[in-house]
């Protein structure tokens, strides 16, 4: 599930074009520094998921529907175990989406770095490793 940190922070396109390090708050409330460079934020349309974008959007809409279903279940006072079953299904859907996106990142971005040389490969492998670590913590 690897969009760049800049993609998930909701920054404007103008802010994303600024290639300086900027402190930002992550969803857990801690501050971190995000550095936008051409290597961490490739130009629009060159991401590994570009060819599957429509399928990914369809999948995310389905997951979004599951989350809305959870809200309705709470509003309707549905039995706890039934809600937990839906939470599990939603979580598995997001994990599966994340793994697919990670695979596409490895096939596209890491493979592209292989052409650029050992330093680029190391940077992309480290980036992917950190993404995997984040996925495993969730």
Distance between the termini: 12 Å
Structural category is mainly alpha
DSSP strand count: 2
Radius of gyration: 17 Å
- What is the helix content? 55-70%
Unreliable stretches (pLDDT < 50, length at least 5) are 1-44
Described by the principal axes of the CA atoms, the overall outline is elongated
Q: Within the largest sheet, what's the order of strands?
A: 1-2
Pfam families: Trns_repr_metal
Biased composition (Low complexity): 1-18
Protein name: Metal-sensitive transcriptional regulator
Keywords: Copper
How would you describe the overall organization of this protein?
The protein has 138 residues and is mostly helical. It folds into two domains: 1-41, no CATH class; 50-137, Metal-sensitive repressor, helix protomer (Methane Monooxygenase Hydroxylase, Chain G, domain 1), CATH 1.20.58. It contains five helices and two strands. A two-stranded antiparallel sheet has the order 1-2. Residues 1-18 have a biased composition (Low complexity).
């Amino acid at each position: 599930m690897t969009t760049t940190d800049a993609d998930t922070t909701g920054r404007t396109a103008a802010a994303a074009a600024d290639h300086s390090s900027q402190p930002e708050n992550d969803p857990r409330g801690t501050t971190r520094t995000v550095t936008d460079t051409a290597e961490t934020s490739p130009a629009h349309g060159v991401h590994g998921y570009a060819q599957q974008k429509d399928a990914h959007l369809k999948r995310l809409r389905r997951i979004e529907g599951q989350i809305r279903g959870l809200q309705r279940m709470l509003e309707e006072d549905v039995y706890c175990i039934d809600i937990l079953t839906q939470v599990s299904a939603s979580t598995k859907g997001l994990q599966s989406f994340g793994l697919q996106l990670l695979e596409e990142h490895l096939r596209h971005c890491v493979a592209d770095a292989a052409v650029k040389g050992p330093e680029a490969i190391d940077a992309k492998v480290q980036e992917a490793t950190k993404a995997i670590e984040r996925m495993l913590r969730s």
